[in-house]
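new request in #modeling-help
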Amino acid sequence: MEYKGIWTIAEAYEGDLKAVSFELLSRGRKLADELSEELVSVLIGGKVARERLEELIKRGADRVIVIEDEKLDRFIVETYSNALIDLIKDRKPEIILSAATVNGRTLMPHVAMKIHAGLTADCTELGVEEDTRNLLQTRPAIGGNILATIKSPDSRPQMATVRPKSSRPLEIDESREGVIERIPFKAELYDQRVTHLETISGGDEDVNIQESEIVVSGGKGMKKIDHFKMLYDLAHKMGGVVGASRDAVDRGWAKYPHQVGLSGKTVTPSVYFAFGISGAIQHLAGMKTADTIISVNTDEEAAIFQVSDFGIVGDLFEVLPLLNEKLEKEVK
Amino acid sequence: MNLIVPIKQVPETSNVKMDPETGTMIRDGVESIINPLDLYAIEIAIQLKETHGGKVTAVTMGPPSADKALREAIAMGCDDGVLVSDRQFAGADTWSTAYVLVKAIEKIGAVDLIIAGERATDGDTGQVGPNIAAAMDLPLATYVSAVDGVEQDAVTVQRLTEEGYEKLRLPLPALLTVVKEISYPRLPTLRGKQRAAKTEIPTFTVADLDVEAGYLGLKGSPTRVVKIETPKVTRGGKIFKVTDEESLHEAVDSLIAFMKTKEII
Ligand SMILES: Cc1cc2nc3c(=O)[nH]c(=O)nc-3n(C[C@H](O)[C@H](O)[C@H](O)COP(=O)(O)OP(=O)(O)OC[C@H]3O[C@@H](n4cnc5c(N)ncnc54)[C@H](O)[C@@H]3O)c2cc1C
Ligand SMILES: Nc1ncnc2c1ncn2[C@@H]1O[C@H](COP(=O)(O)O)[C@@H](O)[C@H]1O
């Protein structure tokens, strides 16, 4: 039996699709075009309205498969895994991409183990090997010091997770057409063992640094938590949010959800500011895809300058207050 | 309560030096340590044992020298260690690693709770924990940040998500992967170290485990590494140097002008 088609796994939260669902489609579209295959967006549960499902098509999908049932309202990996495996066995996709979110990173290894498929985590680049049509999956490893390219030559489907925000959704194309297919959930796939008791939302409204177009980050060079006020000041002027390097987070100057980098979040904002951040490879891994990078550092040799579009070699304690002061006048 | 903690020995990578010629890691003088994120799994396992009784067994698949990681885990307070080691296991990806660990765990005997780290700092995949749960058909909770309660036959945990937290109840036996928030790892004690030195650590080889040869090592791994590169990034933007009051104003004014061209302000 031949394996055909590219699948991306959509994710929903509180009745709406998460942005990663669209980001994955832009990855999937490229592969589907190269391989001349159908691109399918698969949504398990989620209770998503029809017009949002249509947006999946307008942003790249040829087909949307939705498995809906009230038993799928919450992400319970055992049940989701059963549902996905059942669909895989029926349709035999060649490639499955999921977001490297907490749920994607839970579901994919669960499925891959059971169906004996190769799975590559946290890919930053995906391509196709010409002669074999194998998926080439590139990912950072050893703390971002190397990029490894991985393939799964003999097992199908080929599975990969992709970091959220590492690609942009395609623009809406109203002329695109596709099929929305609803599949009933088979009762025997419901695993009743784990119970979801409660959801507690994060609270900190400023926390989602991945959604913002402007991220103003500080590193160890900020010296103390009090100085982060200057970053918030700058960020608020532009409607942005505050990020931080791991060193700053480890010192307690910012909370973990603000951490940018390999072991934090990947951000792809229009503008990324780096104040007192050296530009370690693990930090770059989380922000180097920003459109514009602006940095201030006293050390001329700091690696951050190599990825910067605009750099100031200088003391942030002089530059940042003056910038805030001058911007204040500009805004008025 | 029988607890099992799968731990991995990894190179101390916080200061990795890369060979620019070959793109490989310079291993000379690089120390091997317990995967830092596994220390949190060890700590919470020891805490659960301390409150609910039972014992903690650390298990690792790796070269014979990984025995050191197990002794460290025992020095922290684990009761036993099991080394899973055989040349045929070499080159295993996460699928094959999990396959062998499952066989080893089954040989160790009855287990109530398996606690793995969130991910290993070398491979950095975070797949082995969920893999083991899938293969053993155990209820799974990943990214666990707190264990709220343990009953006779179930455990209640908090799991970190992008949006906040969720609380789950899992019947035992079950598998958890844990994040840093869960605990603060203790240091090995002197008495622990003395005990660790004396503890006998069994080694499970292919001959001891009910494994299929085709599922082992590189040959049993669905994934293949085909290329390794060292990433290079440069943008070559404008760089201003601040030397005095005047150049400071000049730099900041240019920055504001730049921000305007980019329509940031
Ligand atoms: C497996 C692994 C994962 C990691 N994940 C991450 C991650 O997700 N995110 C992350 O950020 N790091 C991560 N790191 C850590 C990373 O290697 C660096 O240690 C960290 O990014 C450094 O943070 P920093 O730039 O704030 O500090 P430093 O490297 O100490 O840099 C501080 C900079 O501030 C400058 N400075 C000092 N004073 C001033 C001043 N007055 N004005 C202007 N500049 C000043 C200095 O010149 C210096 O360049 C990871 C490491 C490992 C091994
Ligand atoms: N070789 C191994 N031996 C024992 N446990 C392992 C091994 N590899 C991974 N693990 C466990 O699985 C977790 C995730 O590892 P990884 O999937 O490699 O990122 C680790 O934190 C360990 O708890």
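bot summary: Chain B touches chain A through 80 residues (CB under 8 Å).
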